[in-house]
Amino acid sequence: MAAQFLPIIKVVAPYIAQIATAAIPAFTSKKEAPKSDEIKTDPIVTKQIEELQDAASKNANSVKVLAENLQQAIENIDIAAQKANKKITTYKIVIFLSLSLTIISLSTSLYLLLQ
Fold it and tell me: Out of 20, 89, 96, 107, which could bridge 64 as a Cys pair, Cβ 3.0 to 4.6 Å?
C-alpha cells in the first residue's frame, strides 16, 4: 500500500526542505523603531507574540530536518529496492539454469533407460 505513494513522496520530498527554508524568515521578528504616536501594547501580549514567533521558527526548523531525513530515507529505500531487484534477477537466472540442467539430466536419463 505504501509503495503506491512512494513516487509521490519522491517528487514532493525535495521541495519540503525548500519550503521550510523559505518559511523560516517569515517568522522572524522585525525590529522597527516605535513611532511616538503609536499605541503601546501590553507587555504580556508582546511576550506571547515573541514566544509564538520562536515556536513557529523552531517548528519550521523541525520540519526542515524532518524533510531532509525523509528525503534521505527515500533515497536509501530506492537503493535497497535496486539491490533487491538485482538479487531477484540473479535468482531468476539461477532458477532458469537449474531448471535447464534438470530437463537435460531427465532427458539424458530417459534416453539411456529407453535404449
Answer: 20
How crowded is the C-beta side of 70, counted as CA atoms within 13 Å? 17
Neighbours of 74 (CB within 10 A): 16
Name residue, grid cell 522585525.
Answer: 30
Other residues' Cβ atoms within 10 Å of the Cβ of residue 113 = 7
pLDDT tens profile 43-61: 898 898 999 999 999 998 8
Half-sphere exposure in the Cβ direction for 42 (13 Å, CA): 4
* Domain residue extents for the chain: 9-28+47-114
- Whole-angstrom distance, CA of residue 51 vs CA of residue 113: 90
How far is the C-alpha of 20 from the C-alpha of 22, rounded, in Å? 5
